[in-house]
Amino acid sequence: MSNTGGPSAGEPDDTMRERGTTSRAKLRALLDADRRVVAAAPLVVVFGSVVVLGQLDSTPLRVAVESSDPIETLAQGLLTAIITGVTLVVTINQLVLSRELGPLGDQRDRMEGSMRFREDVADLLDAPVAPPEPSAFLRALAEGIASRARAVEDTLDAGGNGDAGESDDATASDADSDPTTRVREFAREVESNAEAVAGRLEGRQFGTFAVLSAALDLNYSWKIYQAARLRRVHDADLSAETKTALSELRDALELFGPAREHVKTLYFRWELVDLSRTMFYAAVPALVASIGAILFLDDPTTITGATLGVSNLLLTVAFVVAVSIAPFAVLASAVLRISTVAKRTLSIGPFVLRSETREDDLDWES
């Protein structure tokens, strides 16, 4: 398999949405959509489904209630599920968050590791200290990567590299296989990707998904592999300055990896805290609705009449069901985003886990 199209042929796209086979609409719902909307959507579907099924049933709900107790049975099941489910989820969340607690020695080791990493980033940025805010920190790293990519281009412009493919009669294929051309295209791709990510991070506040979303679109793992491959395969064709610049670019990309993973971890913990709190808030009306159904809806004469041809009793039961499952809709909306991000960032470093993100014409050896 020959990579005749230059460094861009057959390689994964930069943005996370373009690297997978999942449709953009689905990814937008899983990642970018407001979690309140994502949580409300299944509630609307459940409410509508209960109403439609109740209308299609040959035995009206009021008649069924007179002969048995389907509403009370349903409400009791929902009540049990709410208490058990919310308690279990919140307990698991607290166990995850409890990893933040620990003896003084562990906390000191974490602090020292964090400070060493920040010093490495400050050295990379040639700044006294690295920015303290997560979005500014990632943005500074992305700008540092773009700067080092430009430095690679500058060494190529300065000359001293192999000039195959530079003659007037060179074919397009020769130009594509020319080390200088391949390194230049790689540097431009990195610069463009890093500048786009830095622009999206500007002014963003941590706690929103926008910060992590922008960071996920810098395909650093693949670019680490590209930098190492170009550096080794074309070692004899590149000048010492270009090889040094490529190594420095790779160092910058390697720093972005753990920085992004750290911000991702912080965001997940932030989301778990919000999830626990929101589930408690949603559990209160859910408990009230299910308990109220047990106490007051056992008598079919409690609610009479109809609205737009639909029994008010049926509408009330559908509302009770929708409100009762609200805590689980909240849980699902958060888990969908977290699991989607986690699946696409399982590895750290130059590993490509999703084979569908690249084409078969990629030459791993050149």
Question: What is this entry, summarized?
Answer:
The chain has 366 residues and is an all-alpha fold.
Descriptive report:
This protein has one domain. The protein has helices at residues 16-19, 24-32, 35-56, 61-67, 70-97, 104-125, 134-157, 172-177, 179-201, 209-216, 220-233, 240-296, 312-324, 326-344, and strands at residues 306-307, 310-311. The termini are close together. The chain is built from 14 helices and 2 strands. α9 runs antiparallel to α11 (220-233) and α12 (240-296) packs across α13 (312-324). The chain is elongated and about 90 Å long. Residues 165-177 have a biased composition (Acidic residues).
What keyword list fits this structure?
single chain, 366 residues, mainly alpha, two-stranded antiparallel ribbon, 14 helices, 1% strand
Mean pLDDT: 83
- In terms of quaternary structure, the protein is single chain
Radius of gyration: 28 Å
Strand-residue proportion = under 5%
Largest sheet: 2 strands, antiparallel
**Which residues sit in consecutive blocks of at least 5 with pLDDT less than 50?**
1-7, 164-173
As for the number of domains, it is: 1
Number of contiguous helices = 14
Secondary-structure-derived class: mainly alpha
Order of helices and strands: HHHHHHHHHHHHEEHH
Number of strands: 2
What is the first-to-last residue Cα distance?
10 Å
Shape: elongated
Largest sheet, order of strands side by side?
Answer: 1-2
Helix percentage range: 55-70%
